[in-house]
Specification:
The structure holds 2 protein chains of 2 kinds.
Chain A: E1 7-18, E2 21-33, E3 38-42, H1 49-56, E4 64-69, E5 72-73, H2 79-89, E6 90-93, H3 105-116, H4 120-133, H5 149-161, E7 167-171, H6 179-194, E8 198-203, H7 206-210, E9 214-219, E10 222-228
Helix pairs in contact in A: 3-4, 3-5, 4-5, 5-6
Chain B: H1 4-13, H2 15-51, E1 58-62, H3 82-90, E2 94-102, E3 107-109, E4 112-114, E5 117-121, H4 125-128, H5 142-146, E6 151-154, H6 156-163, H7 187-193, E7 197-200, E8 203-210, E9 227-231, H8 232-239, E10 246-251, H9 257-272, E11 282-286, H10 287-330, H11 332-340, H12 345-380, H13 388-391, H14 400-426, H15 430-435
Parallel strand pairs in B: 5-9, 6-8
Antiparallel strand pairs in B: 1-10, 1-11, 2-5, 2-10, 3-4, 3-7, 6-9, 7-8
Helix pairs in contact in B: 1-12, 2-10, 2-12, 2-14, 3-9, 6-7, 10-14, 12-14
Classes of the chains: A alpha/beta, B alpha+beta.
Chain lengths: 229, 437
């Protein structure tokens, strides 16, 4: 285990209590990811990949094991501390975009900066810059329902990027998109990698996983294989 | 930490919900504020009429001893003489003293008899007892006293009875006297009476003044509207009476009237030889105490009115809480999204508390606006007819204290109503919330 890694998991287990039954969603994951890596976590539903993603994204804490993010142990933090870590280090991209319907593109992208306590003027200019970066400079004041699926996902990407996070975590980012829009999204990820960002894609789609440089196959709460190309 | 602009945008996206919440708050604010204003108006008005008897007075009247003292058996009638008044006036706790003889006499105007309560007083009586005379006449003056003149000042209702004497109209249409049945006599009517003669126990007196109408909530005898005043010196000459009916004391500190009462009992008791502890030898009437208890009564009433308003406000509070709960439930997924991108518990909490407070603020402002409108409207109503003077008492007043109470209660209600739904929202598990449909 390299302690200088961006992400470092060792012996991660996650148990859920379902009535009388204890379900083990993760059964001992050891994993390191370095800065600048382009990784796919591939597995069928029920494999534990969602739980692993929640863990990586600091939405959840492990029952056992240690998670070091940027050399900081985040496995025992409380919910407010986790929220702060998510805000500073993680950029989430979801299958169903998860934009706030009542806010326009600019306000959606600026929202993480609100929780970081950035002043309104700075929020606006930073959000605008990132939106222009994903090619939506002419859609700043459109609400999500006035945008196409591909555009919505690009707004979501802009929201993930606006805080300049250590890790970009995408959960089935192309799952709700047509081929062409999906391709645009993947192009953006490739650009980000070229800029030295770290992108982790969680998917059950082999084709999407093959586009990355390292594929982790998950089955029954364990890493089945770890192949780099 | 939360964007106010963003919250407002979100609220505007739910216009019906916002409208209903604001309406509920405005309605309850207006009802609590109007009720408190009515109560405040009554309290202030009755406070004024209380002091119309005189600012802060302690009225001493003679009684009968109820205790044996110094060899004298009980049952002795006490008298208040010039010496007693001098003894009372010497007390440093006393600012001024005026005296009054009350007597019964028939007041005749022509052949018509008018019921009245005559009093014989000195010229400084009007000042101590707040008696205001129309400008076209005057109260008794020093010359009246010195020369023992046969002059008389009429109470407003007495003067009114003299002018509307049944000799000038048909006896058949004589109205039964009633508390509200007529308006007070105005300056023009008073002018007709100045200089005319009336007979008091067959002695002719010249009218020199008529008192203005007086709303008087408290008195120790007859109310001033039904009294006539003649110079005390004239009365003494005609009747031979030397003992005062009332000694009206203006105390230095009205709060200490209890102590002053004991002092007066002691000095008068020394003059007459009665027990200073005797509760019945002298009788006291304390306007301060009267006023305090009346004030208490109206405060109580205002509290009661406020309570009714507050219950309305609580109903509105439950409404807000309801709206917030639904609002939070509908926004579960959204809360999950916010948490995923870094919102902490207090960000979520503040979001909903601020949302509720904004609604409360708008509703409250609207309610107070309506209240101002209603209060001004009522105050501008000119009621004519038999209840005019009574309705005068019920003019609502939106005083700063009423505003303070309303705004405090409103803020508390809004805060409490939002607190629990907001707390629940802040405890949502982001993982579950993100899966919520």
């Amino acid at each position: 285990m390299k302690s200088s890694s961006l992400v470092s998991l060792s012996g991660i287990e996650k148990r859920y209590q379902m009535g009388d039954v204890t379900v083990k969603a993760l059964r001992g994951i050891d994993l390191t990811i370095d800065a600048g890596e382009y990784v796919a976590i591939l597995g069928p539903s029920g494999s534990g990949k969602s739980t692993l993603m929640n863990m990586l994204g600091c939405l959840d804490t492990p029952s056992e094991g240690t998670y070091l993010l940027n050399q900081k142990n985040v496995s025992q933090l409380n919910s407010n501390e986790l929220a702060a870590i998510r805000n500073e280090q993680i950029g989430f991209i979801f299958q169903s975009f998860n934009l706030l319907e009542s806010l326009d593109a600019l306000d959606n992208v600026a929202l993480p900066l609100v929780y970081r306590g950035v002043r309104q003027k700075d929020r606006k200019s930073r959000a605008q810059k990132v939106l222009e970066g994903v090619g939506l400079g002419d859609r700043l004041h459109h609400k999500p329902n006035e945008l196409s699926g591909g555009q919505r996902q690009r707004v979501a990407i802009a929201r993930a990027l606006v805080t300049d996070p250590s890790v970009i975590l995408a959960d089935e980012p192309t799952g709700n998109l047509d081929t062409q829009s999906g391709e645009e999204v993947i192009k953006i990820f490739e650009e980000l990698i070229a800029q030295g960002k770290t992108v982790i894609i969680v998917t059950h789609d082999n084709e999407l996983a093959e586009r990355t440089r390292r594929v982790l196959r998950i089955r029954d709460g364990l890493i089945e294989s770890d192949t780099s190309s | 930490m939360v964007s106010l602009r963003e919250i407002i945008k979100e609220m505007l996206a739910q216009k019906t919900r916002l409208f209903l919440t604001v309406l509920a708050i405005a309605w309850s604010t207006a009802s609590i504020a109007i009720m408190l204003s009515v109560g405040e108006g009554m309290r202030q008005h009755f406070g004024e009429t209380m002091s119309s008897v005189g600012k802060m007075l302690l009225v001493v009247s003679p009684g009968t001893t109820s205790l044996n003292f110094d060899g004298k058996s009980k049952g002795v009638a006490v008298t208040l003489s010039r010496e007693d008044v001098a003894s009372i006036a010497q007390l440093p706790e006393v600012t001024s003293v005026v005296t009054e003889y009350n007597f019964t006499a028939e007041l005749l105007s022509g052949s018509q008899s008018v019921p009245t309560y005559p009093a014989a007083v000195a010229s400084d009586f009007s000042l101590a007892r707040n008696i205001e005379v129309f400008d076209n006449g005057r109260f008794l003056n020093e010359f009246d006293l010195k020369d023992r003149r046969h002059v008389i000042v009429l109470g407003n209702r007495v003067a009114k009875s003299l002018l509307t004497s049944p000799s000038t109209s048909s006896r058949k249409h004589r109205k039964r006297p009633s508390l509200f049945n007529d308006a007070p006599l105005e300056s023009r009517g008073a002018k007709q009476l100045i200089g005319t003669s009336v007979k008091l126990n067959n002695h002719v007196f010249t009218v020199v003044g008529v008192a203005k109408d007086k709303m008087q909530m408290s008195s120790y005898g007859a109310t001033d509207n039904y009294t006539v005043w003649i110079p005390s010196t004239t009365y003494e000459l005609l009747s031979g009476d030397r003992y005062f009916s009332n000694v009206i004391v203006t105390p230095e500190n009205p709060e200490d009237n209890d102590a002053l009462q004991s002092l007066i009992k002691r000095v008068v008791g020394r003059n007459h030889g009665f027990d200073p502890e005797d509760p019945a030898a002298l009788q006291f009437w304390d306007s301060y105490e009267q006023q305090a208890s009346t004030n208490q009564f109206f405060l109580g009433m205002q509290f009661f009115l406020g309570l009714i308003g507050f219950i309305t406000l609580i109903v509105a509070g439950v409404g807000i809480a309801n709206v917030m709960t639904v609002s939070v439930r509908n926004a579960t997924r959204e809360i999950g999204i916010r948490m995923a991108i870094g919102a902490r518990a207090y960000h979520i909490m503040m979001h909903y508390v601020i949302e509720a407070l904004i609604a409360t603020f708008i509703g409250g402002a609207l309610g107070l606006f309506v209240t101002t409108f209603v209060v001004t409207g009522i105050n501008q109503l000119r009621v004519a007819g038999p209840f005019a003077t009574m309705l005068d008492n019920f003019k609502p007043v939106l005083s700063p204290s009423v505003l303070f109470v309303v705004i405090t209660l409103l803020g508390l209600t809004g805060l409490l109503a939002a607190w629990f739904p907001a707390k629940r929202a802040s405890k949502i598990d982001p993982i579950k919330a993100l899966q919520y449909e």
